[in-house]
Amino acid sequence: MFTLLTTIVSFLSGGIPKLLDFFQDKSDKKHELEMAQLQMQRELELQKAGFQSQEHIEEIRLAGIQTQAAVTEREAIYAHDVEIGKGASVWVINARAIVRPAITFGLCMLLGFLEVYGFYYAWASGTPFNTVMAVLWDNDMKTIFGSVVAFWFGTQAFSKT
User: Fold this and answer.
1) Nearby residues of 35 by Cβ (< 8 Å), 6 or more positions away
2) If both were cysteines, with which of 20, 102, 106, 132 could 122 make a disulfide (CB 3.0 to 4.6 Å apart)?
3) Is the CB of residue 158 less than 8 Å from the CB of residue 15?
């Protein structure tokens, strides 16, 4: 039961950023709708005054602002990563980046080893397979492995747009 609970919690924790993004997106869309209404009113007033080409100039200006905002955001992300790694050797930076994948791969290899070794041991000693696996692959290991796999695959499932 605990394994099931932790697996579900780990799976859902990958979706928390998407849930927060949903509420932020809802707020952003409300603001965008208000801005679009104001812009429409302004465009109608400009058209009445005979400034129809102003719309194209504003579209170009808006696209430039959006592009600059995306560039600024990306630069801030890169600057943050550089700040974290300042003064550290390349080895330390690479080790920091490999921690989570290494833990995941290690747990997957552990699962494979336990399954193969458990089968071999049960076959060679004549011990019932269920008895061997109950000792080697206990509830704590199931909980840890289920949480890691659910987190990684849950994160991937929720991050697809």
Assistant:
1) none
2) 132
3) yes
Which amino acid type is present at position 137?
W
pLDDT tens per residue, range 33-89:
888 888 888 877 777 776 666 667 788 889 889 989 988 988 888 788 778 778 778
**pTM for the model:** 0.41
The 3-class SS string of the chain reads CHHHHHHHHHHHHCCHHHHHHHHHHHHHHHHHHHHHHHHHHHHHHHHHHCCCCHHHHHHHHHHHHHHHHHHHHHHHHHHHHHHHHCCCCHHHHHHHHHHHHHHHHHHHHHHHHHHHHHHHHHHHHCCCHHHHHHHHCCHHHHHHHHHHHHHHHHHHHHHCC
CB 157 within 8 A of CB 16: no
- Residue type, position 48, single letter: K
Of 98, 88, 106, nearest in space to 149 by CA: 106
